[in-house]
Amino acid sequence: MSETTCHMSISLDGFVAGPDQSAEDPLGKRGQELHAWHLGDPRANEADKIANEWLMRPRGAYVMGRNMFGPIRGDWDEEWRGWWGAEPPYHAPVFVLTHHPHDPIQMDGGTTFHFITTGFDAAYSAASEAAGGSGVDIAGGALTVRQALTAGVIDELTLDIAPVLLGSGERIFDGVETFGFEPVEVLHSPLTTHIRYRRTT
Ligand SMILES: Nc1c(N[C@@H]2O[C@H](COP(=O)(O)O)[C@@H](O)[C@H]2O)[nH]c(=O)[nH]c1=O
């Protein structure tokens, strides 16, 4: 079935990235603590392995915000091809929301970054068409996920809730008035609680 997914690691106080994101600190201050469960922490267990399979399952196309694609703000004044090296883990078209036009960037392994300047709805509909029934994933970051939640397009939302308080940073639920999901699967490790939610409304 073609459906739209979104999988985010989040702090207990609701932040998906810390403050002051930069080239040196892509997830913001202490943001990396949210991702210990899949970034080699020895306390990771079988639950984290299963959740990582959810995260890495192949999808037909992706939507992401420009701040997730890279640290450049304003004009594209330097060569940048994403955080992920020559072969990004997407292996599908990725539609990047930005206010600054850019030619598509084709990477190894089937990933092409397309830059969309006409808003979330346009990016999502281009991704749906490109996915051709294989499903769209909303890859992040916070602003893009918030727009997807507000638009009501996410069928399956997975949150990895880390027992971490960040205090400040980027939130996904600000301005989203109704949650509209119910939990269908919960797994946990010492590093996080993985909750898979399905849309109810
Ligand atoms: N272009 C666009 C969005 N772009 C978003 O605005 C932020 C600043 O990007 P930029 O100005 O490219 O540096 C970043 O989060 C990017 O994803 N957002 C939207 O809702 N609608 C749009 O049409």
From TrEMBL:
Question: What does the entry give for GO biological process?
Answer: riboflavin biosynthetic process
Give coiled-coil spans as residue ranges: none
* One Gene Ontology MF term: 5-amino-6-(5-phosphoribosylamino)uracil reductase activity
Q: Which InterPro entries match?
A: DHFR-like_dom_sf, RibDG_C, Riboflavin_Biosynth_HTPR
State the source organism's domain of life. Answer: Bacteria
Domain called Bacterial bifunctional deaminase-reductase C-terminal: residue spans: 5-177
Query: What's the protein here called?
Result: 5-amino-6-(5-phosphoribosylamino)uracil reductase
